[in-house]
Recover the amino acids of this structure.
């Protein structure tokens, strides 16, 4: 269990990427394996959803109402970046994930997911544009999930670049649960694309079975996606209903069972299905009952916290904490709850280029926090 004590320390704390920010207080935490402090990097974010790092030390942050901003090295926020696609910011929709192309230093490409309008409804879309100054130029929509429907729920969505350069995007069932097993749409699927939006020849359903962009299906609402550095595998997590949040390893063409199998129930407590297993449907690496409402996910492979190397970190909206998961191969060997004393819903977690962990809190007036080693 978490054993925490707090020491209030006023002053300046060095940002590992080369700048200083004023933190009103640093909380010193003694966890099961590491001692760290929490430093506030930026404040006043408007429902932030995702974070990405640029080579020059700045960060990009999405705000769900539709704003993309820089977080400068001193922790201040830039004016909105121009050229961002139109979003439908309603319910769970809006501007969602942001990712930097692996070749950004040369091509300046930024990728965004968001809820985009069309045909009387909305769906998750993937777009990219070239970052020039404070503007995205040449923005093009690479993918638009079908169908467009009048729902403000379950958009997913995260972006991950696999070691082979392909782009993976996690989606949601949009609240139409039975459609997560329907081969004729993208609801409840993950997709895999070339970085220009074209369909890889070796996608599992090229030639039939499901839509050709589909990589996996049978998911509910995936708000976490990360590449495991030691294996190159794509891992995802998804919200269950009442209970049944899952962490899965995405395998080409696999069916993850929703809603035919689940460990969750209706929010009322009513039974969705009696089945938790079925032949031909994947079992999760782990699941949570009750739900933690996971959002954001990162594998840790930095040097700042050697005790955490290889661990998986997941933000939790319900219960308001950061979950650390120790892995033994493809098995969850242990879990630890971190940051619960903050009382903040965690929307995203990322490892920075400095080896520290960065955490976005959720909601109006949210903050970007950094976890730094604090010594013994």
């Amino acid at each position: 269990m978490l054993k925490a004590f707090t020491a209030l320390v006023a002053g300046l704390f060095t940002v590992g990427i080369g700048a200083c920010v004023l933190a009103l207080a640093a909380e010193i935490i003694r966890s099961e394996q590491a001692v760290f402090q929490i430093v506030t990097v930026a404040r006043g974010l408007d429902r932030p959803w995702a974070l990405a790092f640029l080579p020059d030390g700045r960060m990009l942050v999405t705000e769900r109402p539709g704003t993309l901003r820089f977080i400068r090295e001193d922790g201040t926020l830039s004016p909105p970046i121009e050229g961002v696609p139109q979003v439908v910011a309603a319910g769970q929709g809006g501007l969602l994930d942001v990712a930097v192309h692996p070749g950004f230093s040369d091509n300046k490409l930024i990728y965004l997911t968001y809820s985009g309008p069309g045909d009387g409804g909305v769906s998750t879309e993937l777009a990219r544009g070239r970052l020039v100054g404070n503007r995205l130029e040449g923005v093009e929509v690479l993918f638009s999930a079908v169908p467009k429907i009048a729902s403000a729920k379950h958009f997913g969505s995260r972006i991950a670049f696999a070691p082979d350069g392909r782009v993976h995007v996690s989606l949601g069932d949009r609240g139409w649960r039975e459609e997560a097993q329907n081969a004729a749409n993208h609801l409840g699927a993950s997709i895999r694309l070339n970085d220009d939006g074209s369909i890889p020849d070796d996608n599992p359903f090229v030639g039939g079975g499901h839509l050709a962009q589909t990589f996996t299906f049978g998911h509910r609402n995936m708000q976490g996606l990360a590449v495991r550095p030691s294996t190159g595998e794509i891992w995802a997590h998804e919200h269950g209903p009442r209970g049944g949040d899952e962490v899965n390893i995405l395998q080409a063409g696999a069916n993850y069972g929703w809603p035919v199998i689940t460990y969750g129930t209706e929010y009322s407590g009513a039974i969705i299905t009696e089945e938790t297993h079925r032949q031909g449907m994947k079992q999760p690496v782990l699941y949570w009952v009750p739900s933690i409402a996971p959002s954001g996910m990162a594998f840790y492979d930095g040097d700042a916290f050697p005790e955490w190397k290889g661990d998986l970190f997941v933000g939790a909206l319900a219960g308001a904490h950061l979950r650390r998961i120790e892995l033994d191969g493809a098995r969850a060997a242990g879990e630890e709850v971190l940051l619960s004393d903050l009382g903040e819903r965690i929307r995203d977690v990322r490892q920075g280029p400095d080896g520290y962990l960065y955490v976005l809190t959720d909601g109006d007036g949210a903050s970007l926090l950094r976890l730094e080693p604090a010594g013994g």
The longest strand covers residues 35-46.
